[in-house]
Amino acid sequence: MYNARSLAFLLALATGISTAVILFLIADINSNLLSTISVISFAITFAVSYSLLHFLVFKGVEDIYDVLNNVQGKSFSGLHNEEPRNPLKHIKEEIESFSSIKLGEIEDLKKSETFRKEFIADVSHELKTPIFAAQGFVHTLLDGAVEDKSVRDKFLKKAAKSLDGLDALVQDLLTLSQIETGDIKMKFDNIDLYSLCTEVVEQYEHRAAKRNISVKVKKPEQMVIVVADWLRITQVMTNLVSNAIKYSNEGGEVVIYFEIGERYIHTHVKDHGEGIPQEHLKRIFERFYRVEKSRSREKGGTGLGLAIVKHILEGHKSRAIVKSEPGKGSTFSFRLPAAERVTAAKAK
After folding, report:
1. Would strands 253-260 and 225-228 be described as parallel, antiparallel, or unpaired?
2. What is the spatial distance between Cα 40 and Cα 329, in angstroms, rounded to a whole number?
3. Are 197 and 174 in contact (CB under 8 A)?
4. Whether pLDDT at 294 is above 50
5. Is the whole-model pTM more than 0.70?
6. Whole-angstrom distance between the N-terminal and C-terminal Cα of the chain?
7. CB neighbours (10 Å) of residue 41?
8. Are 13 and 46 in contact (CB under 8 A)?
9. N or C of the chain: less Cβ packing under 10 Å?
10. By the 8 A CB rule, do 252 and 274 touch?
C-alpha cells in the first residue's frame, strides 16, 4: 500500500525509465552519446512527471484532508504515524467514522426530543389534575355553596388538599431540576444512619398507624456512621419509607435494616405489600412513571419521588437496587461509604 507521495514518485520513476528505454531502442548513435541523452532525458522526464503528479494527486489529497479536518474539528496527525497506506481508502474510513459519530448524535437528539415532549406532557397532566380539582371546589363555593357551613368546610379542605398536592409537585420538580443542574451541592459529613432513619420513621408513625402498618428500624450491633449529606439522604429515606407504607397491605410491616461491610454500609427498606412486576422494575425511577396509574394517583404522591432518590444517590456515587415479587412485597437497597473512623475501629 502506498501513500500519495510514494505513488507520485513511483509513477514518475516508471515514466523516466520507460523514456530512457525507448530512446535506447530507437537511437542509432554511439554508446557514449546514447548514455548522455538517456540520463538527461530520464532526469527531465522524472522531474516533470513527479511535479505534475505531485500537483494533481498529492496536493489534491492534502486538500481533502484539510476539508475533513475543518469539518470534523480534529487533527489528522495520527495519519502520519501509521504505516503507509492508500490515502483514498483512509479518507473513506475517516468519512465513514465521522458519519457514524454524527448519526449517533442525531439519534441522541431524537431521544432527547422525545423525552422532552413526554416530560412536558406528563408535567402538564400532573399540574392540571390538582389545579382543576381546586378550581372546581372554589367555584362551587362561589356559586352559593359557601352559605352552607358543612359544605363550605368540606370543599375548602378538599381544595386545600389539592393545592398542597400541587405545592408538593412543584417542590419536587424544583428539587429534581436543581440536583440535575448541580445547583444543589452535596455537603458530605460523617452521619449516623441509624439516627437518621429513626427520625424519618417517627414522622410517618401516624400515617402508618391509620392503616395498622408497623414501621421499625432494626438497631445494628454497632454504629452505622457513613459519609453522606444528611439532608439529601433524609430525602431518600423519606421517599422510600413513604412508598413502603403507601404500597403495603393493611396490617403489614415495613422494616429498615443495615448490612455492615468492610468499606460500605448497605441500607434496606423492606415492605410486605403489592410488589412490582419484573417488566416495570427498570423504569420505576423515571419521572412520573407509575406501574398502575389510576391506583398510584389514588394513593397520592407526585410521581417524582424515586427519580429524586436516583439522582441523590448518583450524587453519592451510589444507586438504588430493587428486589420485588408481586404479592410478596419489595426491598429497596443502597450503599454508602463507611466513615474512616468506623472502618478503623472495626479493623482493630
Report:
1. unpaired
2. 95
3. no
4. no
5. no
6. 66
7. 16
8. yes
9. C
10. no
Supply φ then ψ for residue 254, to 5 degrees. Answer: -120, 125
Q: What is the mean pLDDT of residues 265-284?
A: 89
State pLDDT tens for residues 302-335. Answer: 678 898 899 999 999 999 999 998 888 999 999 9
Give the pLDDT confidence score for residue 332 in this predicted structure.
96
SS3 content of the chain, % helix, strand, coil (to 5): 65, 15, 20
Distance CA 240, CA 334 (A): 11
10 Å CB burial of residue 245 (0-12, 13-18, 19+) is buried
> Cα–Cα distance between 218 and 235 in angstroms, integer?
20
Q: How far apart are CA 22 and CA 45, in angstroms?
A: 13
Return the C-alpha cell found at 214: 408497623
As a whole number of angstroms, the distance between CA 134 and CA 138 comes to: 6
User: In whole angstroms, how far apart are CA 90 and each of 63, 73, 114, 221, 318?
Assistant: 14, 17, 36, 65, 43
Q: How many CB atoms lie within 10 A of CB 291?
A: 17
Q: Which residue has the cell 437518621?
A: 196
Coil, helix or strand at residue 301: coil
Q: What angle do CA 241, 245, 250 make, to 5 degrees?
A: 160
Going through 100-252 in order, the beta strands assigned E by DSSP cover: 189-192, 214-217, 225-228
- Residue 255's DSSP bridge partners are 216, 270
- The crossing angle, in degrees rounded to 10, of helices 305-315 and 149-181 is 30
Smallest Cα–Cα separation from 260: which of 191, 332, 186, 339? Answer: 339
SS3 assignment, position 28: coil
Taking Cα atoms as reference points, which of 235, 298, 301, 244 lies closest to residue 268?
244
Partnered with residue 42 across adjacent β-strands are none
Nearest to 289 by CA among 265, 314, 259, 322: 322
**What gap in Å lies between CA 208 and CA 163, rounded to an integer?**
23
Confidence label for 76 from pLDDT (cuts 50, 70 and 90): very low
Residue written as grid cell 440536583? 179
The x, y and z cell numbers of residue 21, run together, are 528505454
